[in-house]
Amino acid sequence: MPHLTVVATFTAKKGKEAEAKAALSALVAPTRAERGCVNYDLHQDVADPRQFLFHENWTSKAELDRHLETPHIAALKARVAELFDVGPTISLWTKIA
Hints:
By secondary structure, the chain is of the alpha+beta class. It has helices spanning 17-25, 28-32, 61-67, 71-77, 80-83, and strands at residues 4-12, 37-44, 51-58, 84-94. 33% of the residues lie in helices and 37% in strands.
């Protein structure tokens, strides 16, 4: 069965780039330790440091759903309005080739 690929993007508020980067970076280690996580990679746009992107792969939608209910994701959700103008924008993908 193919993995479920997730692309999640965030736009930090002007002046909040460092705080946003820290908050998003704090998700990486606990998420990578979760069951079903194949990869969980955080990227920052070279041209616009306010833009962040997670590229993730999960073994199933159920494992992704479980991830979205974890305490570390809840902690980020509580800070979204403080740190981000836009986000998260989440899209789900399936590899076909």
